[in-house]
Amino acid sequence: MRLTCPHCGERDLREFTFGGATLTRPEGDWGPDWDAYIHLRENPAGLSREYWTHDMGCAAWLLVERDTVTHDIRAVRPVGEGAP
Amino acid sequence: MRFNALRVLKEGLTGNRGWGPHWRDPEPKPAYDIVIIGGGGHGLATAFYLAKEHGLTNVAVLEKGYLGGGNVGRNTTIVRANYFLPGNSEFYSHSLKLWETLEDDLNYNVMHSQRGLFNLYHSDGQRDAIVRRGNAMINQGDDAFLLDRAALEKKLPFLDYDNGRFPIHGALYHPRGGTARHDAVAWGFARGASDRGVDLIQNCEVTGIDTEGGAVTGVQTTRGAIRARKVAIVTAGRSGQVAALAGLRLPIESHVLQAFVTEGLKPVIDNVITFGMGHFYISQSDKGGLVFGGDLDFYPSYAQRGNLPTVEHVMEAGMTLMPMIGRAKVLRSWGGIMDMTPDGSPIIDRAPVDGLYLDCGWCYGGFKAVPGSGFALAHLLATDRPHDSATGFRLDRFTTGRGLMDEEGKGAQHNLH
Ligand SMILES: Cc1cc2nc3c(=O)[nH]c(=O)nc-3n(C[C@H](O)[C@H](O)[C@H](O)COP(=O)(O)OP(=O)(O)OC[C@H]3O[C@@H](n4cnc5c(N)ncnc54)[C@H](O)[C@@H]3O)c2cc1C
Ligand SMILES: [Zn+2]
User: Fold this and answer.
1) What 3-state DSSP class applies to B358?
2) Residue among B240, B303, B398 whose CB faces A39 most closely
3) What does the buried/exposed string (b/e) look like for B15-37 if buried means 16 or more CB atoms within 10 Å of the residue's CB?
4) Series of mean pLDDT values for 10-residue runs along chain B (417 residues)
5) Per the domain annotation, does B225 fall within a domain?
6) How many domains does chain A contain in total?
7) In terms of Cα–Cα distance, which of B320, B272, B313 is closest to B295?
8) Is residue B230 in a domain?
9) What's the CA-to-centroid distance between A17 and ligand 1, angstroms?
10) Ligand 1 atom closest to Cα of B67?
């Protein structure tokens, strides 16, 4: 598995750290939405939208579309550009 | 199918042509009292203890592939009871006691070998933590000994004690820890359950969970619909997918864990050695292969294979700990899919759908749990009350924050364990 950082190009997996599924952060105080946000997961077998950081490279946070069954990377974008 | 010395000798001399199947291969019936989804270690053990402890035999285990083809046949087979936190410690203590009589209970050789397990420490702080853990184990009624460097060197002369980064100061020694033959565990439980009347149905993938008015009524499978009063999801890394069939989302992320085995060598490593700082553990199988593994790859995966950076890390850790293994050739490596919970501890509980039960979240430590989990889930299915050894494995602990079992003290959050 190699990721193509939009800033640095295709780089080794060692340079990246997985940062969790892309979820919408709830508004307001603690409640079921927060519980779900922190604990419950879609845990998809197939296409997964997730955060990674290029922490050993340019340190940017990235939005990645990845297949969890084949490890194919479909898209990598900077977080600022919105969900892939 | 039974074994005895005379039969083994006779079959050995006549080309091993007389052995028969170990369990029946029945057609699924239209309805059962209890359906267990998943024919791994936990599902098969649950079926066995339902029959043995509770006399419930109108039970089916539905397995999408073949029995024992999942993680139960893919792990590094370490069996131990050196957990620290209440909730976990009584459960693993109970499970180890079941292991100790398992071969008699099953009349099956699972090659359970209590060869002793060493947990290394490398600093004063780690020694203090290990003493605390050892005391917790002793209070639980299990065995733990603190060994200093001199005592450890007598037992494990081949470690690199003076490594610059991780000098070895000693170990916590757990003599009752060890290994077992993983496939035999699945086969033994399968035979025991089948002999008592449980139907083990292979090549039968559950594709739907039927509910009516908030209660389970049965399952849809690739071999037709099957009605059931109670359904248990015991599908390890696939728990999230199967729970989704009932409209549930679980506090689980599936991750890949890799393991490795070398070519067969003469006996050289007599015990199980765990090197926590390097995320490395090793033992030698009875065939002679060095069996070892490391940490998760740390990204969600269903691929049953990992990537090379983790392979490299595990090899480096092995070489750091015991350079003598450097010339052994690695024969195979593989991966399994782990059902990771936020606190790294499991769930055995009723699901928020009547008649639906969950046994999941075993992370990378569910092999040692096979008898204990089967026993506790069977008790829950039969009586609707948790077994005394498993009252801590509640699904709602993440919501309430009460009773979290974060053994590593990292926080109850995904991707930390
Ligand atoms: C590399 C590795 C090393 C490990 N080392 C250790 C160790 O040293 N010590 C330890 O204690 N633990 C260890 N573990 C963890 C342990 O193997 C698992 O926690 C445990 O085996 C999981 O429970 P199981 O045996 O029931 O799982 P599995 O054997 O995976 O059983 C689940 C079954 O469910 C079936 N299934 C899934 N979906 C469906 C469906 N829709 N319909 C029907 N059936 C379905 C699967 O085919 C599978 O057979 C390790 C795991 C791995 C991968
Ligand atoms: Zn970059």
Assistant:
1) strand
2) B398
3) eeeeeeebbeeeebeeebbbbbb
4) 88 93 96 98 98 98 96 97 96 98 97 98 97 97 98 98 96 98 98 98 98 96 98 98 97 97 97 95 97 96 95 96 96 96 97 97 96 98 98 97 92 89
5) yes
6) 1
7) B313
8) yes
9) 26
10) 49
Burial (CB count <10 Å: 0-12, 13-18, 19+), residue A80: exposed
Is A18 close to B415, i.e. CB distance below 8 A? yes
Q: Is B71 in the pocket of ligand 1 (CB under 6 A)?
A: yes
Ligand 1 test: best mutation among B35, B71, B226, B357, most atoms within 8 Å of CB? B71
Beta-carbon separation of A43 and B251 below 8 A: no
* Residue B15 counted as domain residue: no
pLDDT (tens digit, 9 = 90+) per residue, A18-61?
A: 999 999 999 999 999 999 999 999 999 999 999 999 999 999 99
Yes or no: say if B185 and B323 are a contact pair by the CB < 8 Å rule: no
CATH number of the domain bearing residue B303? 3.30.9.10
* CA–CA gap between residue B95 and residue B105 (Å, rounded): 14
B310 with B232, same domain: the answer is no
Whether the CB of B206 sits within 6 Å of ligand 1: yes
Whether A43 sits inside 8 A of B414 (CB atoms) is no
Among B291, B316, B339, identify where a domain stops: B339
End position of a domain, from candidates B339, B358, B393: B339
User: What interface predicted TM-score (ipTM) does this complex get?
Assistant: 0.94
Contacts of A35 in chain B (CB under 8 A): 398-399
A72: left (phi over 0), alpha (psi -120 to 50) or beta: beta
C-alpha span between B49 and B378 (Å, rounded):
6
Task: Compare all CA atoms of chain A with the CA of B313 and give the residue at the minimum distance.
Answer: A14
Tell me if A84 is assigned to some domain: no
| CB B47, CB B39: distance < 8 Å | no
